[in-house]
């Protein structure tokens, strides 16, 4: 029955017979896998919503989600079967667990556990669990990693500093002495000098006792909130299997969500900390514009660029913020505003989750203005800044940039001086009006317009998501206010089931640390319901 | 029934009832796991030789092997259960697959698939497959890793050099510009300067188009052949789950065997390439003494130190050797010698595997002398050299070195000048005699006295294995001859089943590349039987 795949040694318990046709089915499945014959593979998996397939990226539930994953991955790594352990289940001869030790062509050993059941149409897989050998470095997430890559700068702080024991994933935009800045683009990296110093935003963390785990990937030049990179791939989102991690601080977010670092050091211009925090279920703070040094940081849009952090716990985020910004001088009152017109740009499921999540919290309505008009002002100023920062390089390297980023730079290149100055005038007006409306109160909104989109979403869908999400995010940008994403909501995930969604708190400028404390209180109050 | 572990959401197919007592058993198991209650865990796993447990380290077969692993690991990482997918198998209600999504305390998501079966004593696990989130860097194997860490030095070679596309795991003894040398010891690393140049043995590989994947761990100061490190842990051996990888080039061997790099750049003084090659199923070449530059390489014992390489394929090993040493001028005749007294120091299973492996290959017997006496000469000269290289540092850092290494240095410190000069005189005599006996012929022997010992082997057992293995290895050291380990034998592994064992070919000085060609011929001839 089998094609290319030779029959490996098959072990059964002593005296137990091999179920008829089972090993042939396993070998035929293996042939289909090696040929990426997705129709055959789909047929080998039991139909219905209860079929399971899990690997390092997470557990998929249901035949359709598994089939969609299979279509998106572009084939499995080539491998041979070293041996099969077959364990019939029950006495009917119609069910067996098959555990395969596999030898990937690229080295190492993997394991595949499958529950096979025989029905009218023959043997099918009801559940599969696949382990492939881990790479030395997950290049979707990291560019360089060490144990540590850079030690804390002070032995006392390393032992007893407020960040002792914490590990940093540094977004590949900050100078780290002895390393290049890659900016998410291999051609940029190849020309980059070795940094002769470390960015203050990094050095301050090292001084508080944290070490650098590694330099993490970013969306190209930080000019995206999707969390994909045409050159290095898409960092995984362990909290939403099959979903994008969000960007542009995609590598730090993925690293922290995966437990590979405890502090993601990122930047947030238009949502690049808040969006990945929302998608990957992390705490994320965009700091007040200008509050944290941007020295030795590759700029995207000076007018809006901020430093930000991603953590799994509020406690670590608070410790980081205090280490860099100092203890807060005052508390922030739990006085909340919500702009219904702004919330309405989010997906309906997100609007529902946001409303349900805030049930019982007193909020006052506010009208911040037309979300399209606010975003247009933000977009033009950001694009003009971005072209000023990167335009010369992008022009000199026309084929070096991925399609999505290139499209955004092309639009940025077309901004006229007149458009820019009009937008900057509008920015000043909007900012004054927004400041008057927001005052010392805290604006609540969803951190993103949806949970993590699927990695296989088409560009139209991603454009739609980005447009809505950027409208939510731009209020903090326009006002230079800090914004905290609290991982306390959920919304439909990329393959069904729930995925994380952040609740965003936009506070007064300079309220960064107090905003975290307020977010903790809110999470405690609402988590207790 | 359950203790600390709260009941997570449990999903079953629509209309399917939860098997009685199953979830309680799963939760009780989880409580036992979190408490590292090994007796309870042992009882939850089905007795007998057919029980299965697999994870990233490999598949263990049988209740006893699983129990031994459990006793050796020192507890599982703390985690909570996110949800359980329960799939009853058959209609008896007595078997079910339980797939758990788990949230490790350290972040990320893992998966555990278990086949539970109800017998007279209640529910037990017949098979388990566990996936934990991968770390950013496996610190047992690597100290620093990049994508790449160092690019090929020449763009033309990167595209079309003989080693284009290959990735190097550099043993942490070679200078790599911009990085420190760690030598397998954190205190040494902390004091090490950043290298201002790259060792020629590394640079030559970069010039041929290979890139550096990372800097890989070594047994401390390369002074061991076990493959363990008191500070950084034991690199995994994917070909012998639960087994040591061999050392001292342990990190490079583990990395290459796992598919994390394609070229392991190591050193071999007393077997530090051949032993890990043997244990992990790799091709390994110890080069002719002096044939490859040792500039910018931390020495262990100058008299015997050589550079060596580890690869998964003969083709890559040949390409590396030719890139560094040039094309061979002559072929090596398939004229083989075997010293029965030397082979007899190996474990009996290895002697059997060696004899069976060579059946049909014409060999002539040779008597090289008393293995104990030969090794004693080697040992004293190596120890004197090692103390000269590292004694001052070890003396100044009395608590910085792991127990096993410290014991060897203590013995080295006690070598008197008289003992050393007597040993050096004996070395000259032995070398002349061995050269006369071996001539231009190739000595065949097992690369090690056993397959990989268990990571849980006690020090008496490891001492026994080392003593025997070093007797096999010292012939190449005493004569400065190259030695090739070919992965073509097998012997009983650490937890039963077969594990890799190398066939070692010791050739004339300068025959390095020709020796690889001969090894390939031998492997092809014997592999075809």
Automatic annotation (TrEMBL), chains A, B:
<dbReference type="Pfam" id="PF01425">
    <property type="entry name" value="Amidase"/>
</dbReference>
<dbReference type="InterPro" id="IPR020556">
    <property type="entry name" value="Amidase_CS"/>
</dbReference>
<dbReference type="InterPro" id="IPR036928">
    <property type="entry name" value="AS_sf"/>
</dbReference>
<protein>
    <submittedName>
        <fullName>AtzH-like domain-containing protein</fullName>
    </submittedName>
</protein>
<dbReference type="InterPro" id="IPR023631">
    <property type="entry name" value="Amidase_dom"/>
</dbReference>
<dbReference type="Pfam" id="PF11533">
    <property type="entry name" value="AtzH-like"/>
</dbReference>
<dbReference type="InterPro" id="IPR024507">
    <property type="entry name" value="AtzH-like"/>
</dbReference>
<dbReference type="InterPro" id="IPR032710">
    <property type="entry name" value="NTF2-like_dom_sf"/>
</dbReference>
<feature type="domain" description="Amidase">
    <location>
        <begin position="159"/>
        <end position="327"/>
    </location>
</feature>
């Amino acid at each position: 029955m089998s094609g290319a795949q030779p029959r490996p040694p098959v072990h059964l318990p002593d005296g137990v017979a091999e179920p008829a046709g089972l090993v042939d089915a396993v070998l035929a499945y293996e042939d289909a896998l090696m040929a990426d014959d997705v129709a055959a593979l789909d047929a080998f998996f039991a139909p219905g919503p209860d079929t399971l397939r899990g690997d390092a990226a997470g557990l998929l539930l249901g035949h359709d989600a598994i089939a969609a994953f299979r279509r998106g991955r572009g084939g499995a790594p080539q491998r041979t079967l070293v041996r099969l352990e077959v364990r019939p289940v029950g006495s009917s001869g119609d069910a067996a667990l098959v555990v395969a030790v596999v030898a990937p062509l690229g080295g190492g050993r993997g394991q595949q556990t499958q529950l096979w059941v025989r029905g009218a149409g023959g043997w099918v897989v009801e559940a599969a669990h696949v382990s492939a050998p881990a790479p030395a470095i997950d290049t979707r997430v990291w560019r360089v990693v060490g144990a540590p890559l850079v030690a804390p700068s002070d032995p006392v702080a390393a032992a007893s500093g407020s960040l002792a024991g914490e590990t940093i994933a540094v977004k590949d935009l900050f100078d780290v002495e002895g390393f290049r800045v890659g900016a998410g683009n291999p051609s940029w990296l190849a020309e980059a000098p070795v940094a002769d110093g470390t960015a203050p935003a990094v050095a301050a963390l090292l001084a508080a006792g944290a070490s650098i785990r590694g330099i993490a990937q970013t969306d190209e030049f930080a000019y995206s909130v999707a969390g994909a990179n045409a050159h290095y791939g898409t960092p995984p989102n362990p909290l939403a299997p099959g979903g994008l991690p969000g960007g542009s601080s995609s590598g730090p977010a993925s690293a922290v969500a995966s437990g590979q670092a405890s502090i993601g050091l990122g930047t947030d211009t238009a949502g690049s900390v808040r969006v990945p925090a929302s998608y990957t279920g992390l705490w994320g703070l965009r700091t007040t514009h200008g509050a944290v040094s941007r020295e030795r940081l590759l700029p995207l849009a000076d007018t809006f660029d901020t430093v930000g952090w991603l953590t799994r716990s509020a406690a670590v985020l608070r410790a980081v913020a205090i280490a860099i910004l100092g203890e807060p001088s005052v508390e922030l009152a739990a006085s909340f505003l919500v702009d219904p017109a702004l919330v309405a740009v989010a997906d309906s499921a997100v609007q529902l989750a946001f409303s349900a999540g805030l049930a019982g919290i007193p909020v006052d309505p506010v009208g911040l203005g037309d979300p399209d008009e606010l975003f247009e002002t933000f977009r033009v100023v950001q694009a003009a800044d971005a072209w000023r920062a990167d335009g010369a390089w992008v022009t000199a390297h026309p084929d070096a940039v991925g399609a999505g980023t290139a499209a955004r730079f092309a639009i940025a290149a077309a901004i006229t001086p007149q458009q820019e100055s009009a937008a900057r005038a509008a920015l000043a007006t909007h900012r004054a009006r927004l400041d008057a409306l927001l005052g010392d109160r805290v604006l609540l909104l969803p951190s993103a317009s949806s949970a993590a989109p699927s990695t296989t979403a088409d560009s139209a869908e991603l454009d739609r998501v980005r447009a809505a999400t950027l409208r939510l995010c731009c209020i903090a940008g326009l006002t230079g206010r800090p914004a905290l994403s609290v991982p306390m909501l959920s919304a439909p995930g990329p393959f069904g089931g729930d995925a994380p969604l952040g609740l965003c708190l936009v506070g007064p400028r300079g309220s960064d640390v107090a905003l975290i404390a307020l977010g903790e209180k809110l999470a405690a109050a609402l988590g207790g319901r």
